[in-house]
Amino acid sequence: MHGHPTDRLVAGSIIGAIFTASLLLLLIWLDIPPEKKVGPAVRLAVPVVIAAVALFARPLLFKTIWRERRDPTLLEEDLNLLMIGRALGVVGGFFFGVTLATQLL
């Protein structure tokens, strides 16, 4: 019925990478934060922080506060691998997004 827990790792990393890379490209294209007012480190850190908050909010809530409200078939191991996959996806999406931004923009 449900897949292997490693499927959560792979799905989390793919979703994290795509979301982070697209958010990084979008914010650089929209010039948020403005290039004239902040340095390049802050300009690259803002999309990564936003992506991390958006990607980790729900799994962390299911792991802590909403423990009794989550699906009974969602195991602790699944949540752990999902969060590891999303962390790897954020890092990979950062590098992929920077590469795309230097080539496209």
Summarize the structure.
This protein has 105 residues and is mainly alpha-helical. It has 3 helices and no strands. It has one domain.
SSE topology:
Layout: H1 5-29, H2 40-63, H3 76-104
Q: What does this molecule look like?
A:
Keywords: Membrane, Transmembrane, Transmembrane helix. The chain crosses the membrane at residues 9-30, 42-61, 81-102. This protein has 105 residues and is mostly helical. The protein has one domain. Helices cover 74% and strands 0% of the residues. The protein has three helices and no strands. The chain has helices at residues 5-29, 40-63, 76-104. The longest helix is centred in the last third of the chain and has 29 residues, at 76-104. It starts with a helix and ends with a helix. The mean pLDDT is 92.
Question: How many individual helices?
Answer: 3
Percent helix among the residues? Answer: over 70%
Which shape, going by the Cα principal axes? elongated
Instruction: State the order of secondary-structure elements, H for helix, E for strand.
Output: HHH
State the separation between the terminal residues, measured CA to CA.
44 Å
Oligomer: single chain
How would you state the average pLDDT, rounded? 92
- The structure class reads mainly alpha
Number of strands: 0
Low-confidence stretches: none
β content, as a range? Answer: under 5%
Query: Largest sheet, described in full?
Result: none
The radius of gyration is 16 Å
Domain count: the total is 1
